[in-house]
Design goal:
This protein is mainly beta. The chain has helices at residues 22-29, 56-73, and strands at residues 14-17, 33-35, 42-44, 81-93, 99-102, 109-116, 124-127, 154-157, 163-168, 173-175, 184-197, 204-206.
């Protein structure tokens, strides 16, 4: 007997490993940093770090990956709009640094690219959105024989250097503690769209920045 299972309303996450040119990587790693208000990590002083001309070739690579995810896999039709980067910054984790669970406002897709990731310097964990009951309600704690992306409440990825993750910006994610005596560097990229959505009766113009 055969059967099919349809995974309605999943939350997709794109994963690939891509190269970065030496000049762009050196520029990003050697940028000026400031301590965040919460005191758990460091951010570049520029929130538009990829606007620098040296990053142009790598930015083109990022947009190619974004279109693989959104256009080819999710089947979005970008005939009347285009993607652009709203902001971008490098996140530096010193020993014992971490990040609490959070999402990204004013963005549709968020990307994380891992520049330097020593072993045990911090995993990224994704959290099922509050109120999303995709299988059984949380009031009934069903045991599972195996923990999978379908039945999980959280999912953790141990990143490698060169990994690129793309995911919906509202998806909450956290970074575990850097347990090494080295620094960990990752690049954050937020994407939105500009153009025209809808029809004459419900037209929405998005101008971008």
């Amino acid at each position: 007997m055969t059967f099919e299972v349809y995974n309605f309303f999943p939350t997709p996450l794109f994963y690939n490993n891509i190269d970065i040119d030496v000049d762009t990587k050196e520029f990003l790693l050697n940028s000026s940093f400031k301590r965040t208000g919460g005191g758990t990590s460091n951010w570049t002083k520029s929130n538009y770090i990829l606007d620098n001309e040296v990053c142009k070739g790598f930015v083109d690579k990022l947009f190619f990956q974004l279109k693989l995810f959104v256009n080819d896999y999710l089947r979005a039709n970008d005939k009347h709009f285009e993607w652009y980067i709203t902001n971008s910054w490098v996140l530096k984790h010193d020993p014992n640094d971490f990040n609490q669970a959070h999402g990204h406002a004013n963005s549709l897709i968020t990307g994380v690219y891992y520049l330097e990731v020593p072993e045990h310097s911090g995993d990224i964990t994704f959290w099922k959105p509050d109120g999303l009951t995709n299988i059984f309600h949380v009031s009934t704690n069903i045991p599972y024989k195996e923990y999978t992306p379908i039945n999980c409440g959280t999912w953790t990825i141990t990143p490698r250097e060169g990994d690129l993750l793309l995911f919906p910006s509202h998806l909450r994610h956290s970074i575990s503690t850097n347990e090494t005596n080295k620094q960990r560097y990752s690049l954050t990229i937020n994407f939105h769209i500009k153009g025209t959505l809808g029809t004459e009766d419900d037209c929405l113009n998005l101008m971008g920045r």
